Amino acid sequence: DIVVVVAVVVVAMRSSDARDGENDGVRRDARDARDGVTSGDAGIVRNDANVGGELVVGAGVECADDDAMVTPTVTVEEDEEAKRHRAMLLQSTKSFRATKARTLEVYCTTWNVGNKAPTLEAATGWLREARESADIIAIGAQEASYKRSKKNIKPESISKHVGDKEEYRSTLRKKGFWGSSKWTKIGMMAGGMFAGGVLAAPVGAAPGMMCGLFAGYITGKKVVNELKVRTHWFDFLFAAMGSQFVLLQSEILLQMRLTVFIRAELQSRVRTVKVGSKATGIGNLVGNKGGLLVHIEFDNGETIAFVSCHLAAHEGPKFFHARNEMVPEILCRSWADSVTKTAGAPPLLSDVNSAFFDASNEIISKVKGTGKKATDAFQAATGQAITLGGGFAAQKNQPLDLLNSTTHTFFMGDLNYRLDPGMILGNEWNTHWDKGAPEAKAEAKPEVDEVPLSKYPAARPVAKPGMMLEEEMEEELIVEASPFSVGRNAVIAHIQAKKFEALEKADQLKHAMRLGKVFTGFREMPLRFYPTFKRRGSKDHDKKSGLKCGPSNSNTGAKSESELAADPGTSAYYNEKRVPSWCDRVLVYSLPGAEDACQQVRYGARHDVKTSDHAPVFAIHRVTLRQLPAVNSLPRAELKFSQLRVTREFSSDEYVSSSAWVHIIVPHTRLVLPEASELSSKHVARSATDVASSSTANYEWSVNELPQIIVGFHETDNDAKVKQAKAAKSMFALTKSATDDDDEDLQPQTAADVKLGLEAYEKFQAVITLMDSRSGSKLGTAIIALSSKTFDVSLVLYSETVGRVSGAWSMIS
Q1: pLDDT at 271 over 70
Q2: How far is CA 304 from the centre of its chain?
Q3: Are 259 and 250 in contact (CB under 8 A)?
Q4: Is the dihedral of CA 487, 492, 497, 501 positive or negative?
């Protein structure tokens, strides 16, 4: 009990460095205020937010059910939170800027460090290759906590090995007593002693204080180790990158790190940077699993996002479903909870809260979402919707998801998807995971349905502060004739024969993408390198051959073990208790019409880095920052629909919506954010031809039931634009120095000298969001290039395919 209380005390603690780091972003946040962006969110609005001048609840609209109540109009004044959300939505009105186009080489790499310190090989090989030609380098790391030791490589010694003339000097290490580890330990011990004394007061405070003091000391040692290891990791990266690269931004969640570097001469082209995170560990609170986000907006309005994650481990179907469930959570919440940070600000390495559990922000997020989850549960259980007065929920402007608002999104990490040996043998999925003898097979387990992750608590591994293994080695005996052994041998044979195309067909991630469960619209280069997991570690000796994989000892002067290690792709190279798999991956999603601006160049793994049971994986893409039309050059026009039909597939745990409406917006084509009524359709009931008990619902809108989507520039928008900009600006307490710059959003806009034709809209996209009429919850989105006259595309909910959207439109003057 005392340790638990100490943990609570620690979670509440914040170092002065954390506060200073947050204050560093005030000036950038102030500038972003002009564009309607706050430092408290990522520019999107949750479904339960009020957006608009007034919220009209149950305003006498007809309900789909005959017995539904019709309530009088109730007007609710817009509160401060609603105004803030309105300001966030204004970023969809940002105009692209006509600047010189440039092609950037983007190097994305991910490595599960395996709780072992990196060595010189990682700097001279893996990271040195990255900096030779790349313009932007995004480095995702998992299990990046390791034991602090004098044997760990000194970052200062890296410079000469990577070709730098000047030796790296760390600026991350704190000096003086107040920034030392001793002060941190004292604080932890004092907090533990106080908590112990309070708990034990009824029976005697002295024993409780002694126990609390001891618990604080143990906890303090773990926290100090984590903070020092973080400093070492970032010093290692900075030294390996050299002076030609500068830190753009970074994010940390327990043992995960995401760091983005950019060439020094390109930093001036970056306009804003946002960072975010989402924990998906035990209880969805602890960051032993989850995702990190760094989002970049360039000076011409183009955007790139990097997401690094660590998904649920282990083999078997329930963990496969757990991984599928985590991806949408990460894409949704890391963006929704992101904040604007100053480009180049150093990482917050002394944040005691994040070093220990990283749970406080997640707890707040959980509390905010409790109401909606309770409503969804009630609807699924009773088939009845909860609404005020029995009418429809208010129609509100809908936020843009990460994938709908970012030109290119790179998703990487230890995704933990496995190669299924059953498919290699030509059988069905999930038939060869059993490690026991066939005749001794235990009673068959019930089939695993695709149900919410909460029904699979084992899929959320228990998190421990300090050292953690990604997968504990199972002690169960693996029988040679077991389905697992037979299947693993088949996988090894395919790897040795380099039958990578056949192996891809057995890859769980590819399977999930084909089913539309995750990563709809994402692209991945062909897998033509040896699987990166699970390699033999330093303790995983093969009793017959004595071969192992790493670690290398080159930084200590000892003979490198790479000379003794098994060759990549051989049976001895991989741990015998796991099926070799491509767990570490890099994928990319581009907006419709922008795919050609992100060319795939190279995809591979660095098996020469041997300290971990994972090999680092990298992907190189060539990204062109496009030149898109500015708003004041776009002619006034209307996007007019001739038809629109949506089919929604509901899962077994979802409430089938009896009626729905759509919200339609074309970002970056108006100076102002239109009111929700201008972008919202009529409510329509589920098709009369649908079978009542079916989980498939069809909704169809006629021309008169759809909104008139006005796009382009008109001088009459100037007044509304100024009002919206002032409202956004009023959300911040700005210092005089932060407001000295000219505020372009408060200046009237004039038409461009050269007015473009309607064909200019072919470079933009429309975002269609399907909403439930009763609860106001989001049912899915579709993003469609305006160059398409007719369309039939996937309805997607945070990368999962949940239906289809079809229709036709035209752009008229």
Answers
A1: yes
A2: 13
A3: yes
A4: positive
E strands present in 654-777: 659-665, 684-685, 696-701, 709-711, 765-772
The token duo for 505 is 């067909």
Q: HSE (CB half, 13 Å, CA atoms) of 808?
A: 3
Residue type, 393: A
pLDDT at 740 over 70: no
CA dist., res. 33 & res. 114, Å (int): 41
Q: Give tens-digit pLDDT for 601-627.
A: 999 999 999 999 999 999 999 999 988
What pLDDT does residue 11 have? 36
Q: Is the separation of the CB atoms in 639 and 667 below 8 Å?
A: no
Helices (H), ranges, 606-756: 676-679, 717-729
According to DSSP, the residues that pair with 624 across neighbouring strands are: 103
Positive or negative: CA dihedral 519, 523, 525, 526: positive
Tell me how far CA of residue 458 lies from CA of 297, 442, 466, 472, 509, in angstroms. 39, 19, 21, 13, 20
For 240, phi then psi, to 5°, come to -70, -30
CB atoms inside a 10 Å sphere around CB 518: 25
Segment holding 245, helix H or strand E:
strand 245-253
Q: What token pair was written down for 385?
A: 């919707």
User: Using the 8-state DSSP alphabet, how is residue 615 labeled?
Assistant: -
- Supply φ then ψ for residue 507, to 5 degrees: -80, 130
Prediction pTM value: 0.80
**Distance (Å, rounded) from C-alpha 390 to C-alpha 681?**
20
Residues 6+ apart with CB under 8 A from 19: none
Question: How far is 804 from 562, CA to CA, in rounded Å?
Answer: 52
| Nearest one of 648, 518, 594, 647 to 783, comparing CA atoms | 594
Angstrom distance (rounded) from CA 227 to CA 230? 5
Q: Determine if residue 133 is left, alpha or beta; phi over 0 gives left, psi from -120 to 50 gives alpha, anything else beta.
A: alpha
Give the three-class secondary structure for 444: coil
> What angle, 0 to 180 degrees and rounded to 10, lies between the N-to-C axes of helices 508-515 and 317-336?
70
